[in-house]
Design brief:
300 residues, mainly alpha, 2 domains, globular
């Protein structure tokens, strides 16, 4: 049986097996690093890059870079649990429990959405195909750096904030607000995905632009939810130390990734749809806001 003819369920089990093997290897490397007293922040980075490298190589063998897609949502709680168990012993304090709840809720929602849209190994993310068309000779480097390493590093920076929460978390009003941000983010994403699914179901003609529900206030409410989650994690940290430090650049890196890479790629794909330019002028890019009123042409 070829990979292209493999059913969705079988391909799912294959991906699960690949990720389980990758996580076991990562756990082994992590254990060796702990034994040799490698600093936690550096050890997680090394393990993260090694695991990303494994997924990259296997993706090359399977000729599908989308093997990496669930990495974004599956690996953060994996590292959080390992970090807490190794350096704190257990999730015994309420701030850590709330952090774990928020991250698991986010992870489950995002992984479910990935699985719902997974079509098998015969297709990969359209953005990867676009990058391959634009860089046919250097695609393996673009694949390694742009598709795999850059997202891994950006999410790793967010996890540094989570690790700091584990060390310094204090339950206060600010922490609760950050938790509410992080916990509500997957709900926003779920609602946005549901509304988009319903829109596509009711509008089978290609080219139509959604302008209802959350999409009436943001052109990318699902991206807003993603950013809200990581900003919420940072607010939880900020409320514990009550000072701005270098970790502020962690959520900023995530915002930069979406504002300057993810959104432009998506909008470049959508710009030729009838009515999208008008929609673009009326509706906020990411942060939800009321629609702008467009000036109607004066009658001569």
């Amino acid at each position: 049986m070829s990979l292209n003819s493999m059913s969705k369920t079988k391909s799912g089990f294959l991906i699960l097996f690949i990720y389980l093997v990758t996580m076991v290897i990562g756990l082994f490397v992590y254990a060796v690093g702990v034994y040799f007293w490698i600093p936690p922040w550096f050890l997680v980075l090394v393990v993260d890059i090694i695991m990303t490298g494994i997924i990259f190589v296997v993706g090359l063998l399977l000729k599908n870079a989308s093997l990496y897609d669930p990495y974004w949502s599956v690996i953060p709680p994996y590292f959080l649990v390992i970090y807490v168990l190794v350096y704190r012993g257990s999730f015994s304090q309420l701030p850590m429990i709330l952090l774990l709840i928020a991250m698991l809720f986010w992870s489950i929602r995002l992984t479910y959405n990935w699985w719902k849209n997974w079509e098998g190994f015969e297709k990969q993310d359209w953005r990867y195909d676009l990058l391959k068309e634009q860089n046919p000779k250097q695609y393996w480097i673009v694949n390694l750096v742009g598709i795999h390493l850059v997202p891994t590093i950006v999410v790793y920076l967010q996890m540094l904030v989570a690790f700091r929460i584990v060390s310094f978390a204090t339950l206060n009003v600010g922490y609760i607000i950050g938790f509410i941000f992080a916990f509500s983010a997957p709900i926003i994403q779920f609602i946005a995905d549901k509304q988009m699914y319903q829109f596509r179901k009711e509008n089978t003609e290609k080219g139509k632009v959604i302008n209802s529900g959350l999409w009436r206030f943001s052109r990318h409410p699902n991206y807003f939810g993603e950013l809200l989650f990581w900003v919420g994690i940072y607010v939880m940290y900020l409320s514990s130390i009550l000072a701005i430090d270098l970790y502020i650049f962690c959520p900023i890196a995530m915002i930069v990734l979406f504002v300057f890479i993810s959104v432009p790629l998506m909008e470049d794909k959508l710009k030729n749809r009838p009515g999208y330019l008008e929609y673009q002028q009326k509706v906020s890019m990411i942060f939800p806001f009321f629609q702008k009123k467009t000036k109607e042409p004066r009658n001569k």
